[in-house]
Structure formats: structure tokens, C-alpha cells
Amino acid sequence: MVLQLFEGEKIRFAAFDADKDAEIFSKWTHDPEYLRLTEYEAARPLAPFHIKKKFEEMEKDAHGDFYYFVLRAKEDDRAIGFAHIRWVEWNHGNAHFNLAIGSPDDRRKGLGSEALQMLLRYAFEELNLYRFTTHTFEYNDGAQNFLTKHGFQLEVRRREAIYRDGRYWDALSYGILAEEWAKSADSK
């Protein structure tokens, strides 16, 4: 049996291509809404040079517990987002992930759902993980609904851990177990 790990209906997983991707990733860092929905760090724009350097550092620091994918639209091969698995605890079968669609024009078209389904299949069937965890913020209702829709459960609420726009917000951790994913429609 051959299972396609890196190709979906509308998107595919690819490696970061510094010449091709740095410019568009840099453009996303100029969108404070995007940054505040995906990052704990303070929002700041990055030049393509800084994006390339950031990827070089990530690659250098990766020791078999970091998997990075650029999400590409199959129709025109442009970068539309990223997905990465990190902090893998092999002895426990646990890992954390991030997933984001960069441009507002590409959001709410099912691309994130397709990417998440591919990432879950990769995590549970290829890496043989048992638990998959991600983090979001109290103010990100879209992410909370998205994760719940795909079978994730709220596991941790760090009260008032994020300071944005003059107030403190809760940081949220969502998780899904391999057996929960296997029972869901996402695994089909």
C-alpha cells in the first residue's frame, strides 16, 4: 500500500526554499493580525534576509525532533503557509505543532483543514506519535473552533499569560490522542 504523505487535494507539503519563500514569509510578518494569531513573541516585521537566517538556525538546531513543511498550493506552487512538528518526546510519543495560513486571501477555503488532516496523518501514522498538542490564545476564537471541529480538546488554560492590547489573555493548549484521531472522520 502506498500512502501519499505530502500531497493533498489542493495543497502539498514541501521543504522551505530560501530563494522562493523568504519574500512571501517576510510579507506575512508585516501583518500584525497574522502574527498575533500565531506567535507568542512581540509582532515585528522581518526582512527576507532575516527569514532566511531564521530558517538556517532552525535547521542547524534540529536534532531529529523538528519537522518543517511549507504549505504550497498545488495549482501554482506558491507558499500559502507552514506546518511544523517540534518538541518531540520520542519516549512518550508526544509532540507539539504549529500550523498557519499566511495570506488572508487563502484563509477560510478549507486549506487549513486539509493541511491539518495531512499533518495528523503524518504524526500518527508516519512518526507513530500518541499525542499531538498545539497552543493558541483566548482571543483567537477561530483557532479554538477549528481545533474543536477536528477533534482536539482543551487541555490546559494558563490564566492571563499573554498581554496584548492593554489586557491579559489566557494561553490555551489543545491536544488530540492517536486513538481519538483514528475514530474521527479526519483519519479516513
Instruction: Report the sheet-strand fraction.
Output: 25-35%
Just give the CATH class. Alpha Beta
* Main pleated sheet: 7 strands, mixed
Rg measurement, Å: 16 Å
Total domains: 1
Weakly predicted, low-confidence segments: none
Mean pLDDT: 91
Secondary-structure element series: EHHHEEEHEHEEH
- Could you name the CATH topology? Aminopeptidase
What would the principal axes of the Cα set say about the shape?
A: globular
CATH architecture: 3-Layer(aba) Sandwich
Could you give a short description of this structure?
This protein has 188 residues and is an alpha+beta fold. Helices cover 34% and strands 32% of the residues. Helix 1 packs across helix 3.
Structure, described:
- The protein has 188 residues and is α+β, with helices and mostly antiparallel strands.
- The chain has one domain: Aminopeptidase (3-Layer(aba) Sandwich).
- Helix content is 34%, strand content 32%.
- It contains six helices and seven strands.
- It has a seven-stranded mixed β-sheet with strand order 1-2-3-4-5-7-6, sandwiched between helices.
- Helix 1 crosses helix 3.
- It starts with 10 loop residues before the first strand and ends in a 5-residue tail after the last helix.
- The model has no long low-confidence stretch (mean pLDDT 91).
Kindly list the characteristics that best describe this protein.
6 helices; 188 residues; alpha+beta; globular
Topology overview:
Elements: E1 11-14, H1 18-28, H2 32-38, H3 48-61, E2 67-73, E3 79-89, E4 94-101, H4 111-126, E5 131-137, H5 141-149, E6 153-164, E7 167-177, H6 178-183
Parallel strand pairs: 4-5
Antiparallel strand pairs: 1-2, 2-3, 3-4, 5-7, 6-7
